[in-house]
Amino acid sequence: MGMVSGCPLNNLCPEWNELVYKGRMEDAARRLLLTNCFPEFTSRVCPALCEKACTCGLYGDPVTVKENEYAIIESAYESGFMKPRIPKVRTGKKVAVIGSGPSGLAAALQLNRRGHSVTVYEREDRVGGLLMYGIPNMKLEKTVIDRRIALMEQEGVVFRTGVDVGKDISAEELQKQYDAVVLACGSSNPRNINASGRESKGIYYAVEFLKATTKSLINSNLSDGYYISAKYKNVIVIGGGDTGNDCVGTAIRHGCKSVIQLEMMPKLPDQRAENNPWPEWPRICKTDYGQEEAIAVFGHDPRIYQTTVKRFIPNEEGHLKAVETIKLQSVRDEKTGRMRMEEIPGSEQILEADLVLIAAGFLGAQSYVADAFGVNLNARTNVATETPDSYQTNVEKVFTAGDMHRGQSLVVWAIREGREAARAVDEYLMHYSNL
Ligand code: FAD
Asked: Cα(289)–Cα(240) distance, rounded to whole angstroms?
C-alpha cells in the first residue's frame, strides 16, 4: 500500500467551500484559519495533497481546494478581516522559538495567541526560513511573508534576527531566560556529490544559489552583484526534484545559455500505474514551472533521467568547464530483494558546464544547535522524540518541530508540526491545553 495523501492540517474544505458558496467569505476565512495558521503560504506553494485524495478526483476533476484557499485568505486580507488578534490575558510564561521557518512561525503564532510571551530567534537577516531564502520569489512573493510578520509583531511576538543560537547566544542562557524552548532550525545539511573535481570553482548547493538570488533581488533588484549569476552560462542542476526545478527556473531568469537537470531515477509514468490507485499520492511525471519554462525557451525538457555525475572537469584555473556523466540502470539486489541504481559501463558522456547546482536533498539537522542543547538525534540525524508524534526532546523544557524533527518535508507539514509542538509546550507549561 502506498502513501495515502490528504491534508496534514485536516483542512475541512467542504465546510469552507459551503461558506464561500453562500457568500460568507469571512466565516470561510474563520473556518480555514482554525486549522491552518498560514493559508497565504500553503495556497501558493503547497503541492495540495488534499486535491490528489479528493473524492471528486476519483472519476473527474478534484475540487480546486488550493485556489479556493487562496481566494478566501486574500479576500480576508483585502477586506480588513486579517487584523492582529492580541491576546487579552498574558500567562507570564516565556517561550523562545529558534528558527523562523513555517514550523517556528506556526509554533510562535499559537503560543502567543494562548498568552505566552514568545521571542523568535533567527540567524538570517530576514524572517521566514526557506519560505524567505529557499522558495524563489516567483513562487512566493516575499511581501506575503512580511505582511504576516507585521501582524504577528502587532500581536506581540518578538523577532530577533541575526542571532545564531549556539554561537551568538548560548543554549544555557536561553534555558535560563525562558520557561520553554522550541527548536525549529530546519534540515539544512545538503547532500553532497562525492565525485573527483568537486573542489572546482563554479559548483554550489542549490539553497546557496537560491538564497543569494532572493537576497540580492530584495535588496537591490539584482543590481548589487551579490549573487551567483547563471547569465550566459551552461548550467547543470543535479537532482530532479522540486528544489532542482526552482534552480532551473531561476537560472533561466538569470539568462543562462543552457540548462540541464540530471535525475538518477527513471522517468515516472504520465498516468497513474495500476498499483498506484486513488487516493494514494500519484507517482507520475510532473512537469513543473521551471521545466515548462525551459521547454518554452530552449525547446526541450531539461531533464535527463537515469544519469549521475562521474567527475567534474576543471580548466587550468580550476574553474569548472565540463561534467562527465554516466547512465544508470535499476537492478535487483540479490540479498535484500530491493532495486538499486547501478552504473552502465561505457555510457559516459561529457557535458559542457560553467555552473553546477547540487539539489540532491538534505541530510538532517545541523549538529551545532543539537549539541549546544544536548538533544539526542535519531538514525536519520533529525532531533529525536519518543514517538514521531511527540515533540519533547530528551532535555527538560526543550521541544522540536518541523524539518529539524521530521526531516526534509513540506511547508504544510512544518505548519502542522509547529501547531502540535505549541500544544505540547502549552500542556507542559499549563498542565492542559486548549490549542
Ligand atoms: P526552515 O524553513 O528550514 O527554517 C529553519 C530556520 O531556522 C531558518 O531560517 C534558519 O536560518 C534558522 N536557524 C537554523 N539554525 C539556527 C540557529 N542556530 N539560530 C537561529 N536560527 C537558526 N515545501 C512546500 O511545501 N512547497 C514548496 O514549493 C517548497 N519548495 C522548496 C524549495 C526549496 C529550494 C527547498 C529547499 C525546500 C522547499 N520546500 C517546499 C520545503 C519547505 O520549504 C520546508 O519543508 C519548510 O520550510 C521547513 O520548515 P521549517 O520551519 O522546519 O524549517
From this structure: 13
Q: How many angstroms is it from 186 CA to the middle of ligand 1?
A: 5
Q: Does ligand 1 come within 6 angstroms of the Cβ of 100? A: yes
CB 160 within 8 A of CB 120: yes
CB of 205 sitting under 6 A from ligand 1: no
Report the DSSP pairing between strands 320-332 and 307-314.
Answer: antiparallel
pTM, whole model, 2 decimals? 0.96
- Judge if the beta carbon of residue 171 lies within 6 A of ligand 1: no
Q: Is 333 exposed, middle or buried (0-12, 13-18, 19+ CB in 10 A)?
A: exposed
Question: Quick check: CB of 184 below 6 Å from ligand 1?
Answer: yes
Main-chain phi, psi angles of 142, to 5 degrees: -70, -20
Helix (H, G, I), strand (E, B) or coil at 413: helix
Residue minimizing CA distance to atom 6 of ligand 1: 99
To the nearest 10°, report the CA torsion of 350, 351, 357, 358: -30
Residue type, 346: G
- pLDDT, averaged per 10 consecutive residues of the chain (435 residues), comes to 66 83 94 95 93 85 91 97 97 98 98 98 98 97 98 98 97 98 96 96 98 98 97 97 96 98 95 88 92 97 97 98 97 89 96 98 92 95 93 97 96 98 98 95
CA 117 to centroid of ligand 1, rounded, Å: 23
Sorted by sequence, the CB contacts under 8 Å of residue 187 that are 6+ apart come out as 362, 363, 364, 365, 382, 403, 404, 407, 408
> In this structure, which amino acid lies at residue 254?
H
Q: Is the CB of 181 under 6 A from ligand 1?
A: no
How does DSSP classify residue 224? S
How far is residue 12's CA from residue 33's CA, in Å, rounded to a whole number? 10
Residue 2: per-residue pLDDT: 42
Ligand 1 centroid to Cα of residue 20, in Å, is 32
Rounded CA separation 192/341 (Å): 18
Q: Whose CA is nearest to atom 23 of ligand 1?
A: 410
122 close to ligand 1 (CB < 6 Angstrom) = yes
CB 252 within 8 A of CB 294: yes
Three-class secondary structure of residue 393 per DSSP: coil
Q: How many angstroms separate the alpha carbon of residue 96 from the centre of ligand 1?
A: 18
Distance from the alpha carbon of residue 341 to the mean position of ligand 1, in angstroms: 29
